[in-house]
Structures are given as C-alpha cells and as structure tokens.
C-alpha cells in the first residue's frame, strides 16, 4: 500500500515543479517584454509629466522629449529644452540626451524623485543684439555636467565642461 502513495507524492512534486518553472519563465518573459517596451516606446506620459513637474518646482523649466529606460543608464530623456523654447529670452539651451537618476529609496515606494540630471553634449546659444546692429551669437558646445538636487531646495552643479570658440572650458 505504501508504493502507490509514494508514487502519488512524487507525481505531485513533479507537477508543482513544472508549474513553478513555467511561472518563473512567464514572469521573466513579461519582465523582458516590459523592459523592451519601455526602451523602444518610452515611459508613460504621466511619469514624464511628474518628472517635469518636479524639476519645475525646483525652478527649472525643462521640457523633456522622449523619456526611455536604457539598461544600466536608467531613464534617459532625449531632446530636452530649457525655457519656453522661444528666442525672446535671448538664449537657447538644447540637450540631445540627459540621464535622469532617481532616488532609490523613493523608487521603492513608487515615487519618482529626481536625485541628479546628467547632461551630455548640450549646446547653449546666446543671441546678443544691439540696436541697428547685426545679431551676434555666442555659443558654447559640448556642455557636460551633473546637476544634483539636495533636499534643501538648492542645486549643486558637478564638474562643468564645454567648448567655446574651440577652447576647452572646465570648472
């Protein structure tokens, strides 16, 4: 009598192991598919708007282009603009790519709190015009810096590098 009971026990274990293996495989495929979607299509607009609102609360008017999840780099925003986009301010600041690093402790609670923004390849063009004179433009190319947001409503600018009239600038 113990032989059929013993055989039924191992049959149940095999079934449980099969379902566990299938479940883990399905979860891995869903995770890889979700990662691929966030990389190709970008993050949903409500996350992008939350990030823009946080930066606006800190006093920067950034318009983020497409925000994508990129492997080990995390969230990467493309075609970022500073300001309203009009030339009435006298300058244009465009960033082809910016890494948005989030605070990990807030991310565990599904809150998106920015810790730093790393800018690479940014360009600043400043239009200077005097009355009855042609418009002169000053441009700083290849700007790279890291903008940190500490808790007390301040900004910290990491090492700032750029190129002005083919001269390398570093601060």
Describe this entry's structure for a reader:
Strands 1, 2, 3, 4, 5, 6, 7, 8 and 9 form a 9-stranded antiparallel β-sheet that branches. The chain has 3 helices and 9 strands; from the N terminus they run ααββββαβββββ. The radius of gyration is 25 Å and the shape is elongated. The termini are far apart. The chain has 171 residues and is an alpha+beta fold.
Unreliable parts:
none
Q: Got a strand count?
A: 9
Summarize the amount of helix as a percent range: 25-40%
Elements, N to C (H/E) = HHEEEEHEEEEE
**Percent of sequence in beta strands:** 35-45%
Note the main sheet.
9 strands, antiparallel
User: Helix tally?
Assistant: 3
Any key phrases for this structure?
alpha+beta, single chain, nine-stranded antiparallel beta sheet, 171 residues, elongated, 38% strand
Task: Describe how the helices and strands are arranged.
Layout: H1 2-40, H2 45-57, E1 62-63, E2 67-70, E3 74-82, E4 91-102, H3 104-107, E5 114-128, E6 136-148, E7 156-157, E8 161-164, E9 167-170
Antiparallel strand pairs: 1-3, 2-3, 3-4, 4-5, 5-6, 6-7, 6-8, 8-9
Brief rundown of the structure:
The chain has 171 residues and is of the alpha+beta class.
């Amino acid at each position: 009598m113990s032989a059929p009971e013993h055989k039924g026990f191992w049959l149940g274990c095999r079934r449980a192991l099969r379902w566990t293996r299938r479940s883990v495989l399905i979860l891995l495929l869903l995770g890889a598919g979700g990662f691929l979607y966030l990389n190709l299509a970008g993050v949903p607009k409500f996350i992008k708007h939350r990030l823009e609102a946080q930066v606006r609360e800190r006093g920067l008017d950034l318009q983020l282009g497409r925000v994508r999840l990129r492997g080990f780099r995390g969230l990467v925003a493309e075609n970022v603009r500073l300001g309203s986009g009009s030339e009435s301010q006298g300058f244009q600041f465009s960033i082809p790519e910016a890494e948005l690093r989030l605070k990990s402790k807030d991310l565990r609670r599904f809150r998106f709190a920015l810790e730093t923004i790393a800018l690479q390849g940014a360009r600043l063009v400043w239009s200077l015009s005097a009355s009855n004179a042609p418009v002169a433009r000053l441009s700083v190319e290849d700007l790279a810096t890291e903008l940190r947001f500490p808790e007390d409503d301040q900004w910290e600018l990491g090492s700032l590098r750029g190129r002005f009239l083919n001269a390398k600038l570093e601060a």
